[in-house]
Design brief:
heterodimer, A: mainly alpha, 12 helices, B: alpha/beta, Rossmann fold, eight-stranded mixed sheet, 12 strands, disordered N terminus
Chain lengths: ~290, ~325
């Protein structure tokens, strides 16, 4: 630990305000996601705890605000603050799981394409090229309309979109990596291919993935929000931040803005924090920018 | 063993042909190369850049990647043909029976693993030793290549070593599984001159101690003349001359070998210009007819453009592929 505190990485971190703000926002959301249910009295999924008499209460600082609901309530009397905490759980969960799945699948395919070349390479990279020529939201929309909606379907759609960037990056690094003499040396030593890939190629292609993975969580949160907003994302029983915006959007112009705006601000802060930290990582981990 | 050695060499490469089928044409990188490496012997493989030296090394280990392919010939390791051997057999040959030392010690060790991990990897693959025994073997090996405090240094990463030390580590890794043959591909080219002779001496004592043989691939005749028992000179994928080191260096029969030797700067004589071989290596996809060397050869005649010379016995037991070879002591 002391070596980490003395490292150049940590030194630069303490001097980068964007890194500190970004990681603070990420820490805030991590805390909200983990501790959220314990911070609020109401469970917005539990119909028994909802009171229709409390519907469309404005935020507490406006006239008619209720001190129990400081960010106001929606049409069912759901506390907006509680909804945001519960919704962030779903948004962050989807972003993280889809990122991990994309990263694992994309890295694997990239390693295979780069290391073995030939037909495997052609097939994998052509699929990736086709994938990239469509807007990712379109592919997700298409998949969602084919397989239906639900958290698991959103994960499938996001992974189908997200693996490409890993595959391309890993393939490129693998191609340059297998030219290195220590990979030749490993082959000369009689190491089987899967061991060479695992021990000598994989660890050396991982660094750029850290940056992609970080930024991608933010991108996935946004795509999921878009899908939910378009009505093909998560079901109404598991409202993510995007679905909260959609639900509030119907009454946005009736002056009941808080049901939509506060979840929107939450998404913005989450993605902003992730991107700030991701930018810092990119600058730190790219040897060419040093 | 000695009796067997007298009968057949450790490695017998016969008429090896390794071609690369590229879009621009077939590159005959190795085009009918034959040589032998006896038990405990150092064989120097010499030639200019692009002469096919490294391809010979990789062919022996069966590590020629597409679009390259071994098109013909035999590589007999103790009588067993490696060209015909399957991938599984080759994997037990690599590292255990034949290992390799590369040119640049800066890049031939993985920066992300400790030296100990990289040594251990080889032993895990090629021995049945337990963890402690492997550790001890690694410590002993590092010490024997002249690295002090070996147990401690095993935990160090490659960047914590100097270039010369790293090459010692690379040699230690190559020797670890007690291979019968070590292929050293320009092992000292990337090192400081002061370190070069140390490393060469180390390699000599290592293979002498272990009774191993070595193929020393280099462009540096000064290095092979110190190290090798026999020398094979390659030019454009062909063997142009073969023989015992002393005879070949003192009285080469092939004008190309003569040219290589004369290109070594001589510190005892003060010359205005270094002598060099005129011209450059021809495009290997598009070789001239007859002798490949004739455009650069001071002795070339009409016959050289017509017929390709074959290896024929010369003075001092040398073999040279030349229509007009040099007599002993003769200058071109």
């Amino acid at each position: 630990m002391t070596t980490f505190l003395q490292s150049e990485f940590f030194h630069n971190y303490t001097r980068s305000s964007s890194a500190i703000i970004g990681s603070a926002l990420m820490a805030l959301f991590a805390f909200a996601v983990l501790a959220g249910p314990f911070l609020v009295a109401q469970n917005p999924y539990d119909i028994a705890s909802l009171d229709l008499m409390d519907s469309y209460k404005p935020p507490v600082w406006l006239e008619g605000g209720d001190p129990r609901y400081w960010l106001g309530t929606d049409g069912q009397g759901r506390d907006v603050w509680a909804s945001i905490l519960y919704g962030a759980r779903i948004s962050v969960f989807i972003g993280l799981v889809a990122m991990i799945a994309s990263c694992v699948i994309g890295t694997l395919l990239g390693l295979i394409a780069g290391f073995y070349g030939g037909i495997a390479d052609s097939v994998i990279m052509r699929i990736a090229d086709i994938q990239l020529s469509f807007p990712s939201i379109l592919i997700a929309l298409f998949l969602m309309s084919a397989v239906g909606t639900g958290v698991d379907k959103v994960l499938i759609a996001l992974t189908a979109v997200g693996w490409v960037v890993y595959a391309r990056t890993v393939r490129g690094s693998t191609l340059s990596e297998i030219e290195k003499e220590y990979v030749q040396a490993a082959r000369v030593a009689g190491l089987p291919n899967h061991k060479i890939i695992r021990k000598h190629v994989l660890p050396n292609v991982l660094t750029p993935l850290i940056v992609i993975a970080t930024i991608q969580v933010g991108t996935f949160v946004l795509i999921e929000a878009s899908l939910s907003f378009l009505g093909v994302g998560v079901p109404i029983t598991q409202p993510s931040l995007g679905l909260l915006i959609k639900n509030g959007f119907d009454v946005l112009f009736s002056g009941l803005w808080w049901t939509s705006v506060f979840p929107g601000v939450a998404i913005m802060m989450l993605v902003f924090g992730i991107n700030l930290f991701g930018d810092f990582l990119r600058d730190e981990l790219n040897p060419r920018l040093k | 063993m000695r009796d067997a050695a007298a009968l057949s060499p450790l490695l017998d490469v016969r008429d090896l042909r390794t071609y690369f089928h590229t879009f621009a044409g077939t590159v005959r990188a190795v085009n009918g190369v034959s040589f032998e490496v006896g038990y405990g012997e150092v064989m120097g493989l010499v030639g200019e850049s692009g002469g096919g030296k490294s391809v010979v090394g990789f062919s022996i280990l069966g590590l020629i990647d597409s679009p390259g392919k071994i098109e013909g010939g035999k590589i007999l390791l103790e009588g067993q043909d490696l060209v015909e051997a399957g991938e599984e057999r080759l994997r037990t040959v690599r590292g255990r029976e034949i290992s390799m030392v590369f040119q640049d010690p800066m890049t031939s060790l993985n920066p992300l693993h400790t030296v100990g991990q990289q040594m251990d990897e080889v032993l895990r693959l090629h021995s049945d030793l337990g963890t402690d025994a492997r550790h001890k073997a690694c410590v002993d090996m590092l010490e024997s290549v002249g690295i002090s405090r070996a147990a401690e240094r095993l935990k160090a990463y490659p960047h914590q070593f100097s270039g010369g030390m790293r090459q010692r580590v690379v040699i230690a890794i190559a020797m670890l599984a007690s291979p019968k043959l070590i292929i050293a591909d320009e092992p000292t080219t990337a090192l400081d001159v002061t370190i070069q002779s140390q490393i060469l001496k180390l390699m000599r004592t290592q293979i002498a101690d272990k009774g191993a043989s070595m193929i020393l691939i280099t462009h540096d005749l000064a290095v092979v003349s110190e190290m090798a028992d026999h020398i094979t000179v390659l030019y454009c994928g062909n063997v142009v001359e073969r023989g015992r080191t002393r005879d070949l260096i003192e009285n080469p029969a092939h004008p190309y070998t003569r040219g290589l030797i004369d290109s070594i700067p001589d510190t005892t004589e003060r010359l205005d210009r270094l002598s060099q071989i005129p011209g450059s290596v021809p495009d290997i996809r598009n070789l001239p007819t007859g002798c490949n060397f004739r455009d650069r050869c001071p002795r070339a005649q009409a016959l050289c453009a017509k017929d390709e010379p074959v290896l024929t016995p010369q003075h001092d037991g040398l073999l040279a592929a030349c229509h007009f070879p040099l007599k002993a002591g003769e200058r071109p």
